[in-house]
Amino acid sequence: MMESNPSSSSEFQPLQPPSAVGSEPKGFTRTCKGLAVVLLGGYALLQVFPSAVNYLALIPARTIPFAWNLITAGYLEQVLPGAIGSSVGLLFCGKVLEPVWGRKEFMKFIILVNFFTSVCAFVTAIALYYITRKESFLYTPLSGFHGVLAGFLVGMKQITPDHELPMCFFWKIKAKWMPLFVAVFSIVMAFIIEESINFLPTLLAGTYVSWIYLRYFQRKPEIGLKGDPSDEFSFSSFFPEFMRPVIEPISSLFDRILCTRLRTSEFIDHTLPISTSTEASRRRERGERALEQRLAAERSATMGSIEVASRGI
User: Fold this and answer.
1) How many CB atoms are located within 10 Å of the residue 271 CB?
2) Is the dihedral of CA 172, 295, 156, 69 positive or negative?
3) Quick one: angle between helices 80-101 and 276-312, nearest 10?
4) Three-state DSSP class for 219?
5) What pLDDT does residue 22 have?
6) pLDDT of 151 over the 70 cut
7) What is the rounded average pLDDT of the residues 14-22?
8) Distance (Å, rounded) from C-alpha 181 to C-alpha 279?
9) Per-residue pLDDT tens for 103-112?
10) What is the C-alpha separation between 285 and 279, in angstroms, rounded?
C-alpha cells in the first residue's frame, strides 16, 4: 500500500538518487573510492616517511601540542592488512549506506564518528595510564579506520537489520547482530593477543558514538525530525532477548536525558509530528529497497555476461 501512494514515493527520491542506485548499481560510490585512496595513501606515506606516524597518529602524550591527530589518526593505517581491510569495508558498507543517507550525511557521519572516537580513545588511554602507570598507554601510536567501520555496522543495523552479511565460507550473520559480534570478538581477542587491546577502545567507542549520533542527533530532512527513538534501535536491541531486562534500566537513562528532551522540543516546532516508529519503518524500507535494487541489478548483469559468454561458445 505504501508503494502506491504518490506522496510516499516522493519521499524515496532524495534518499535514492539516480547516480547512486540507477546509473551505477553495481559500482562503488565516488566518495568511498576517494576515501579508500586516502587510506591506502596514508599507509604508503608511512612506508616512505616512517616518522610521519609521530605527527599523524594519536599518541596521547603528544596530543596536547599535536591536537590535529584527533582527526588524522582515523585515516592513517599503519599496517597493510589494516589498510586493505578498512578500504574493502569502506567500499562495501558505503555501497549500502551512502545511497540511503546521501553523500553529505555520509561524510558528516564519518567525520563526527572519527573525531569523537579519537577523543574517547585519548581519554581511555590517559585513564589506563593513571590506573596502571604503564607508559605504553601514553606513547603507543593509535590510528586506523576501524572505529568508523564499527559505526558503519551500527548504521546497517538501523537500515537493514535483517540483511545477512557473509562472515566466512557459508556462515552468515544478520546485520542487527554484527555490532555485538564485533564488540565481543574484540574483547575476547584483547585477552588472547595483547597487542589487539590497542584496537579495543576505538572499536567500542566507534560503536557507541555512532549509536548516540544515529539515535539522538541525525537529522531527517524529509520529515524534519532528529534521531531514531524506535524500540528496534534502542540500546538494549543490540543484545539478545535474555539480556535486555538487565540492559534496559541502564539504557532508559539516555532516553530520559536526551531522547525525551529532543522529541519534546521538536514536537513544539512541528504542528503535525510524525510517528517515530512509522518513520523508522519507512527508513528501513528505503534501505532494504535500495539494497534489493542493487542486488537485482548485479544479478541481472551477471546473468547477462553468462549468456553472452555461452553464445560465444
Assistant:
1) 6
2) positive
3) 110
4) strand
5) 38
6) yes
7) 39
8) 27
9) 999 999 999 9
10) 10
* CA 64 to chain CA mean position, Å: 28
3-class DSSP assignment, residue 58: strand
Supply 101's cell numbers.
543517507
Rg, C-alpha atoms of the chain: 21
* Alpha-carbon gap, residue 267 to 272, rounded angstroms: 8
SS3 state at 36 = helix
Q: Which of helix, strand or coil describes residue 3?
A: coil
* Predicted pLDDT at 255: 67
3 state SS of 17? coil
Residue type for 270, please? H
What is the pLDDT confidence band of residue 26, given thresholds at 50, 70 and 90?
low
Report which of 150, 152, 173, 171 is spatially closest to residue 162, judged by C-alpha positions.
173
Is 60 exceeded by the pLDDT of residue 181?
yes
Q: Can you tell me whether residue 225 is helix, strand or coil?
A: strand
Mean model confidence pLDDT for the chain? 79
308 has pLDDT over 90: no
Question: Could you give the residue ranges of the DSSP H alpha helices within 133-271?
Answer: 136-139, 146-159, 178-192, 200-212, 244-254, 260-269
Cell, residue 123: 581519554
pLDDT value at position 273? 42
Q: Cα separation of 78 and 52, whole Å?
A: 11
